Structures are given as C-alpha cells and as structure tokens.
Amino acid sequence: MKEIEKKDTGFMQKILGTGLVLLLFLSLFGVIFFILVDNNEDIVRLCSVQTIILGLSALWLAGKFWKGETGFVQTSLNIPILIFLLTSLISIIRATNPYQGFSELFNLSIYVLFYFLIVNNIRDEKYITRFITALLVLTTVISIHSILQCISPRLDFLWFMFPPDASFSRASSVFGNADFLGGYLAMVFPLGFSLFLFRKRKLFFCISSVLVFLSLLLTFTRSAWVSWAISVCFLVIIFLIYRPEVIKKNLVWLTGGLLGFILLALILNFIKGGIILSRVSAIFNWGEYNVQVRFGLWRSALEVFRRSPITGVGLDNFKIVAQGCRIHNEYLQILAETGILGLIAFSWLIFSYFRVGFKVLESITPYRQVLGIAFMSSVFAMLVDSLFCFPLHRLSHNVLFWAILGLTVALGNTGRVEMNTDTGKMGTSRILLPAGIVAGCVFAIFLIWRSFTGVYYYQKGFDMNRYADRSQEMREKTRQCFEKAAHLAPFHYQIQHDWAIVAIQSGDLEKGKKAMQWSERLYPDRLPDVRLNLGLLYYEKGNFEEAEKTWKETIQKFPSCARAYFYLGGFYINRNKMGEALKFCSRAVELEPTNSEYLKLLARVYFRTGNMPGARDAVSKGLAISPDDQELLNMQKALR
User: Fold this and answer.
1) Which of 81, 167, 569, 575 is most buried per CB count within 10 Å?
2) Residue 474 has pLDDT above 90, yes or no
3) What is the pLDDT of residues 88-143, one digit of tens each?
C-alpha cells in the first residue's frame, strides 16, 4: 500500500487504526452480553465509545505535547466545526435546561475530537481500507441477522440481546428500530457498491451489497429507501464525471445489479402481500398518518424557533420546551435549538466537506477517488435521511458520519502539518500540558461512568418496582436504588422525576419535595404527577391544609391539569364545601369531558346540592362512556 503522506507509520496511527474498528463494533453491538438493545441508544454503547475516544485523545495529545509538537493538520473543515460548536454553546445561554444542553454539547465535542484524531493521525491507506472492510463485514452480519429475524425468531443468533416479547415484523437487528437500521444501511451501501464496481474481485462486495439491500427493503422504512435511491443516483453521477471508465467497464454489472435490485424488490413485494409498493405509493400521500405526525412536529419546531430565532432555545432542549420527541428533521431540530446561527454553521460545515471532497477527487489515485466518491455518497445518504429522521442523534450514525468526514480529508492530505519540536521553548508546559490533558480525560471518563452507574441503578430500581408491593424489604430496596440513581446522575431529569415519586410514595416527604423541586428546574412544565402524588400523601397523613395548598399550587403551575381540579373537588366534598366542590368538579369535566370518574364526582355534587337534573345529566354522560360502571348504575337507579 502507498502512503498518503511520506512519513513512517507511527505508534499512534497503529493504535488508532485498531481503535476505529473497535469503535465501529461497540457503536453497533455494544458490550453485547451486558444490556438489552434499546433503540441503539443504550448507555453501555455510548459510555464505551466515549471512553475509547477520550483515551485515544489523551494518548495522542499528551504524547504530542511531550514531544514538543504543537502543530495540527489545517483543513477547510476546522473552522466550520469549531463555529458549529460555538453556536451550540451560545444556544445554551438561554436554554430552559442548560444541563441537558451541556450534556449534548459534551457528546458533540467527543465526536469532533474523534474527527481530529483521524485527520491528524491516519496517514496510511491500509488503515482506511481496514476500516471499510470492518464496516462492510459488520454491516453484512447485521443484515444477515435482520433477515433471519424476519424469517423466523428461531433463527435469531443474537436472541440474548432482545426482550422475550420483541416484535420483528420489520427488520431492525441490533438497532432495535427499523428506521434507524434503514438509515444506517443507506449510508453503508455506497461503500460496498462502489468497491463492487471498482474491484476485480467482486464476490464479497456483491454479496454484501445484495444482503444490505435486502435488509434495507425489510425495514420497510420509506425515508431510508428515498435516501438510498438518491445517494445511488448521486454516486453514479459523480462516477460519470470523475471516473467514467469505471461505469463503462462495469456497465453490464451496473445495469444487471440495478435490474436485480428491482426484481428482488418485486419478488419480496409479492411474498409480503404488496406491502413494498404500498409503502412506496404512501410516500406521496400527504394525508397518511405518519406523514401528518411529522408535519405536526415540523410545525412545532417552527413555533419553537420563533421564540428565539437567532440563538435557539438551547441544544437538545426542544423535547423539554415542546414536551415532544425528536423533530424527525435534523435541520429543523438544529434551527429550533441553535437558531439561525447554528443552522448556518452546520450548512457551512457540510458545504466545506463536499468542497474538500471534490477537491480531493482531482488529485488522488483511482482507488482513493473511488473511496472519496463512496464517502461523499454515504454522507449524502445521511443528509437526505436527515430530512425525515434524526441520524445525528444516533450513536452508530454519528460514529460513521464523523469517521467518514475525517477519512475523506485523510485521503488527500488536504491540510498541512505544522510541527514544532523545540522542546526548550515549551519549558514546563512540556510536562504540565500532557499531565493536564490526561487528568482532564480521566475526569471526563469518571463523569461518564458515574452517570452510567446512575442509569444502571435507575433501571434496576425500575425493574424492582414491579414487585415492590410484595414485601417491605423489596420496597426499601427499590427506594434505595432510585436514591442512588438520583445521587449519581443529578442532572438526569427522568431519574430525578421518578425518584421524587418513589420518595413521596414511600413517605419520605423531605427528600421527595427536594427531588420534585429539582426535577421541575430540570424539566419545567412537565406533567404534574409528582405534585399530585405529594398532595395525596399529605391527605392520607391527615395534613389537609398542605394537601389543599399543594393541589392549588399544581393548578397555578399547570392550569389545564384536570386531575388537580378533580382532587380538589373531592377534597371539598369531604369538607362539605359544596360551592367550591362544584366549581372544581365542573372545571375537571370541562377539561376532560370523556372521563367517567370526573362525571361521577360531579353527579355527587349535584345530588348533594339538590340539583337532580344536573345529577341525571352527569350520570347519563358517564354511563355513555362507561356503561358497566356499577356505581353509576346505582346512582341512576337512585335518581329515578
């Protein structure tokens, strides 16, 4: 193999070459015997990948400064990447939950560090080839696994990674989600297919491409199909411009391959009862349910964007501000969370990448040109998929995306390396800088695994809570798990929220109130279940004033919380304050007119105040909703 740069392959390059393969494996499979797959976002994968990247970074930077080398590879992507990080940081200033923003910024920074690791250390072509080979082998294994899953659960050779009731009507494999698998396969396909066209030995690349395509079809993911089709068109066009002889020499293979893919799709469509053509035709059906859901999320994103159009509402804060899920459009997500500045910075980054990529194609060997075309087609597939999904918020996709960015730059050595090895000028910095870097990385790794331990105890407590009613000992163990989780992961709003509920239900009012107040700071305007539980506990303990006060505070904070009105209505009935009871019960029914429990309580108020027509009307409406409710039937008899 030839070298991209005329330098001896160093120790760091060898370590990173192995690290790239390991990172690929962990981002896809995780520590496979440890935890179940959870939509490719399980904490083990994330912590493992982040730990390795930080460890490699500490080794690289500490060794670099120890040798007195202060220069870095200069590329056209450096400034756009740093500006994108800066705009993300600026967005956190006005974030509803800055802790969530800093957590996401930390994740993004590690991916950026991964990019710089590759750009500054990969010099030898063989490490790029090794990375691609590992990627294709792992993706082929995943494709085989997903296909076998769809044929029969008995053929699932990774059965231990999935819960017993897992459904495999759509291919998902280790991703746990068909949409995520589809997007990933669309990214990988251009790499295998490009090498199939270029290499003389085509068998492996042919088998890999067919299996990836078949698995892609079985995901039944329309966004992945669209991104695959557009990226393949992009790939062929770039080949025709830069390597037309590859297309000419392989015209029969290319034509046969595309026709074979179409035939395979038609056969599978017949086997599956026409579902593939049905899904394809639904792409243009704007009234289809999933399309409307996405339109709704996109409208929410634009509404959130209007709140802070310049800097956004804060990195990873959309789900907190809008109380929703991901937007299913990365560009609108960036716009809503980091504002116009963030979207411009990200667009600059993508533009700079393709500018570098096309520049690389003009000055490198044929094999590297093919790799460059494949890399850009892969990124293009992800960008198209980003219109409908959120690949930039998936660990596996991020590892592949940032690796491809770095390897594209490494292909042509588009930057220059400034080396300053005058250790005398560095003085004590030669010792302090490496020590500081190692200490910083160790501290970051400590925080990562501390948070992991918190999530572990949370999951353990969550599982134990199913059996908490069996004994006092089990309840206490459950409470201890949630308390440890809250202590170890203090900025995880879901853990703090659930710990508040567990503490309140266990009678620990002081810790419960403290956790409730903290969780509300982390996630303002969240569902008011913690306060409702707190009010119930006060009531059960006979502290009626605190119960009334808590429920009224809940209404002030959550004016549309029907259950708070319901609780206060019942409270005032028991206190024989019928005027107040009627007001709150009526409001509960106004907010949730289809809740038979609320109508039942309102009927009681009407009955006790002598308003028999109102009571009959409430009972009639309640029975229309719950015709078998014995209490409502008894009330109906009493009102005749």
Assistant:
1) 569
2) no
3) 999 998 888 899 899 999 999 999 999 999 998 888 888 999 999 999 999 999 99
Q: How far from chain centre, in Å, is Cα 59?
A: 29
pLDDT at 1: 36
For residue 286, the one-letter residue type is W
485 Cβ contact list (under 8 Å, min separation 6): 454, 455, 456, 457, 458, 461, 492, 495, 499
Write out the two tokens for 547: 């119960």
Query: Other C-beta atoms within 10 Å of 559: how many?
Result: 11
**Cβ atoms 315, 97 nearer than 8 A:** no
Report whether 98 contacts 481 (CB < 8 A).
Answer: no
Handedness of CA 285, 288, 291, 295 (dihedral sign): positive
Interatomic CA distance for residues 8 and 59, integer angstroms: 18
* pLDDT 10s digits, 164-185: 556 677 888 888 889 999 999 9
Supply φ then ψ for residue 489, to 5 degrees.
-125, 70
Its sign, for the CA torsion 264, 267, 272, 278, is positive
pLDDT confidence tier of residue 75, bands split at 50, 70 and 90: confident
The one-character DSSP state at 60 is H
Q: How far is CA 398 from CA 45, 99, 187, 200, 388, in A?
A: 12, 21, 11, 31, 16
pLDDT, one tens digit per residue, over 427-471 is 566 677 788 888 999 999 999 989 888 888 988 888 887 777 777
The DSSP result for 2-26, as a single string, is: -BSSSSPPPHHHHHHHHHHHHHHHH
Question: What are 250's two structure tokens?
Answer: 């392989």
Question: What is the DSSP secondary-structure string of 483-550?
Answer: HHHHHH-TT-HHHHHHHHHHHHHTT-HHHHHHHHHHHHHHSTT--THHHHHHHHHHHHTT-HHHHHHH
Domains annotated on the chain, with CATH: 11-412 (no CATH), 427-501 (no CATH), 544-640 (1.25.40.10)
Prediction pTM value? 0.84
